[in-house]
Amino acid sequence: MPQAAILVSAPYFTADELARIEDVGEVVYAGTPDERAALSEEARMGVRAIANKGHKTLDGAQMDLFPNLEIISQFGVGYDAIDVAAASARGITVTNTPDVLNEDVADLALAMMLAWSREIVRGDGWVRDGTWGKGKDLPLNRKMSGAPVGIAGMGRIGRAIADRCAGFGMPVHYTSRSAKDTPEGWTYHGEDVVALAEAVDWLVVAVVGGENTKGYLSREAIRALGPRGVVINIARGTCIDEDALIEALDAGDIAGAGLDVFYNEPHVNPRLIALPNVLLQPHQASSTVETRRDMSMLQCANLTAYFAGAPLPSPVN
Fold first, then answer.
1. Based on the domain organization, do 36 and 85 belong to the same domain?
2. Same structural domain for residues 60 and 162?
3. Domain match, 114 and 255 both
4. N or C: where does the chain have the smaller number of CB atoms within 10 Å of the terminal CB?
5. Annotated catalytic residue within 44, 55, 173, 236
6. Is 308 helix (H, G, I), strand (E, B) or coil?
């Protein structure tokens, strides 16, 4: 295998993840743009690959710091922080780590749906703080099974979520750029997210991130959900008009939301935090030991294959 100088471009890698990258080739550490710019010319000339993780922007200007850069291997299925067009224009290959996290993300989507509908967090608090022990019963909550669900974005993750919802007897509706091969009775709404929202009580946002899906769940679509509507977002914070969502939640125009992703995360809008009808999670959909291990292994498999001249497991461009 040719000698590979791999820039580790994020400070978020665990020791195990770094060890796997180091097994692929020589490693250069520069976790911030300032640290990259401060590298010597010799070090920058030697970089042929970037092992990237997280959601900090990696644009053409950053790529130009490394004249011999050939591949950017992203840890994660989402690559919206990477300017793929800029990479393609420079002959740089981009890869990601799809599929290995589908099940975990789908599990969390269903967990948030169940936790919201059955007030799991509030119930836990009542047991712990003695409210239940003082004779006060938790108010009746809401049945999830059998309610119509909409999947905004029937990709790999969307399909895994839909399959789980079908197991709860929920009629499945979905949007996608094209109709999918789905079980009989699932309803396709084209790319009309407003029509999707009108047809369901639960709407799960599972589209890819990036400029093309910014504000995908619009003010009109949120309004179309109605007073029983609940939004679940495991995609990207930018996929929802967050101001419109907050206004609808505050006014009772929709019933609630379960959110794993946000604008400007990890700095969540205080207005969201103050709302009692929202379940909040710290962008942890793929955060299991098993899945993060598999994501790391796939990231390194892409790097290894590239330097060996072998087919890439999961190219983006």
1. yes
2. no
3. yes
4. N
5. 236
6. helix
